[in-house]
Amino acid sequence: MTATLADVFARVRTEGRSALIGYLPAGFPSPGAGVELINAMVGAGVDIVEVGLPYSDPLMDGPDIQAAVEQALLAGATPDVVLDTVEQITAAGATAVVMSYWNPIERYGVDRFSARLAAVGGHGVITPDLTPEEAGPWISATTAHGIDRVFLVAPSSTDERIATVCSVTSGFVYAASTMGVTGARTTVSSAAPELVRRTRALTDLPIAVGLGVSTGAQAREVAAYADGVIVGSAFVRRILQAPDRAVAVSAVADLARELAAGVRGN
Amino acid sequence: MAIESIAPAGQDASGHFGPYGGRFVPESLTAALDELDAAYHAAIVDPEFIAELAGLERDYTGRPNPLTRAARFGELCGGARIYLKREDLNHTGSHKINNVLGQALLTKRMGKQRVIAETGAGQHGVATATAAALMGLECTVYMGEEDTRRQALNVARMKLLGAEVVPVTAGSRTLKDAINEAMRDWVSTVDRTHYMLGTVTGPSPFPKMVRHFHEVIGREAREQILAVEGRLPDACVACVGGGSNAIGLFSGFMDDPQVQLRGYEAGGDGVATGRHASRFSAGSPGVLHGARTYVMQDEWGQTLPSHSISAGLDYPGVGPEHSWLHDTGRAVYEPVDDVEAMEAFAALCRTEGIIPAIESAHALAGAMRLGRELGPEAVIIVNLSGRGDKDVETAAAWFGIDLAQRP
Question: Most buried among A7, A20, B187, B286, by the most CB within 10 A?
Fold first, then answer.
């Protein structure tokens, strides 16, 4: 078993830095290449991997991730490819969570999905379109199988809402830095520090910031106030732009190194 | 199912119809949906809002619209007494205006300056652009690229009305993808933008709110049929894409168990071919666009593409209240394929001098089926949800009328 989310956040705290969380969809651009790319990311300093479950209607994602999941689906990505990916990267030592829109998990069966994810060594699931109000069966299933549940807070969330979200969350809280969809931005929203401050007042859970972080400098800026820095679209874009698999692998590793320096304040 | 157990649940406080509905959205939208829910509940009991909406319905939309006896068309329906609820005579040509006027007034009450909308056939986009023009709101309409080609006339109408039309090139390039894109816009601009969702789908409060603004259809139809027939109808019939025109009509008769409620989905090339939009024949409960409802999906929960000659019915999901009415048996849903719909389309043109929207032609085909089953004593109300002007090109191609040929 690899380090849990709690282990990772405890470790980075003792190292006086933030955790680097990297996202890639499973099976992108193909099941085999997907695993190699994730392993490259981990080898270059990503602490926690978010393995995306490709879905036909990714309404919280911008153009880069939309394009990536479309490719992954065409290449045959299914929940089983996601679980295989988790199994393989876990065997290589990664701490993995799954990021999925709700319908594929419900269709797979909430208990079955939690059980299989635990069996392949996955540690948690991020569910961007599942609200605490609709999460009853999910809370039971993930609790039974020891899977962390990561819910999101947003700049528009009231304090009362943040408290509700945190009460059902485990592992870490995902703070959406901005009102918008995923995608690299030139600046990280100024709403993020305030959201983290408000959230920290209501929970002891680690807080990771995502949406819009794409460079080492941005990672350093976010690491100054958050426990984790989440990067997705920037990795995806490197792969979309790469002419071949070897270039993609080295581009992903280069970005991971740059970001890993950033979360260490360098 | 026993009558006692089928009383429609309406919607509970958290926005469910039985197990359906609810809210499956990014957290960024929760505050906006709560704000909308509060504004909606405050407005519908505010005499000023009620009067303003009623005034617009009367003076702008042209309500009440008639309930027209279709005697010659009825002969093709087993001799049943067929009445058409004439939503086609509304300003903008369909029932869609009922909802957008209500939501546009709410937009102003919430102090927002911009509205966005998705559209399939273009009817909701045109209605939204119309309301935005009337009330001085900025308007952006998302439309699948495929649909902008099928419904070029409506694209032009929206532009004439001052709206920006954004062709959506993601995914299947139809209504489902237009909704995704509108949601993405909304997440990013929610502080100044209201999303005018066009049907009884989506996260709560949309299904109950859109239903509320269409209940006028059922209210009028009920009064009108009682006035002319002195009794309730045996059945109410409507086409079901997202299902807003159907819910509007059904709502007037929901508590009258003797009135059958019949919804007709798009059977496309036939349910057996897989090219259709028959959620209740070939779909299963899932989550799409913020609500739990029947969805056309594969074994992994990926949304399947839908297909219909009618762009307005070409949608893989359906309003959650319909899912509940289906499961409880209060309403019955059947597919009508393209061929049957176009036969009914032609029949209404030739017997009544009314060119229906192809969406509504699915309901007319349903009435032909049901009338033959219920017989000449039956009284049936058909919701003629829209007029067919927008469909002339599609219908001409279907019937082999050469538009370029001079008479």
Answer: A20
Q: What local confidence, expressed as pLDDT, does residue A169 receive?
A: 98
Query: Per residue in B169-222, pLDDT tens?
Result: 988 888 899 999 999 999 999 999 999 999 999 999 999 999 999 999 999 999
Closest B-chain CA to A100: B301
What is the per-residue pLDDT for B203?
Answer: 97
Is B172 among the residues known to form the active site? no
pLDDT grade, residue B10 (50/70/90)?
A: low
- Chain B nearest C-alpha distance from A131 (Å): 6
- Is residue A215 less than 8 Å (CB to CB) from chain B? no
Instruction: Give the pair of three-digit tokens for residue A56.
Output: 């036909």
With CA atoms as reference, the chain A residue closest to B292 would be A103
Q: Which residues share a beta bridge with B293?
A: B286
- Cβ atoms of residues B304 and B298 within 8 Å: yes
**Yes or no, beta carbons of A153 and B184 under 8 Å apart:** no
Per the DSSP assignment, residues forming a β-bridge with B119 are B143
Shortest CB distance from A180 goes to which of B25, B171, B187? B187
Across the interface, whether the CB atoms of A129 and B288 are under 8 A apart is answered no
- Chain A, nearest residue to B185 by Cα: A180
Residues in contact with B374: Cβ distance below 8 Å, sequence separation at least 6, in sequence order: B78, B80, B234, B235, B380
Task: Encode burial over A24-34: b for 16+ CB neighbours within 10 A, e otherwise.
Answer: bbbbbbbbebb
Q: What pTM was estimated for this model as a whole?
A: 0.96
Tell me how crowded residue A155 is: count the other CB atoms within 10 A of its CB. Answer: 21
Is the per-residue pLDDT at B8 higher than 50?
Answer: no
Which residues are CB-neighbours of B28 under 8 A, at least 6 positions away? A152, A154, A155, A156, A176, A179, A180, B187, B190
ipTM of this predicted complex? 0.95
CB atoms within 10 A of CB A136: 11
pLDDT for B2? 35
Residue A251 dihedral angles phi and psi, to the nearest 5°:
-65, -40
CB contact under 8 A, A56 and B24: no
B190:A161 CB<8 A:
no
Q: Does A195 touch chain B (CB under 8 A)?
A: no
| Catalytic residue IDs of A | 50, 61
A154/B290 CB distance under 8 A:
no
Confidence bin at B1 (pLDDT 50/70/90): very low
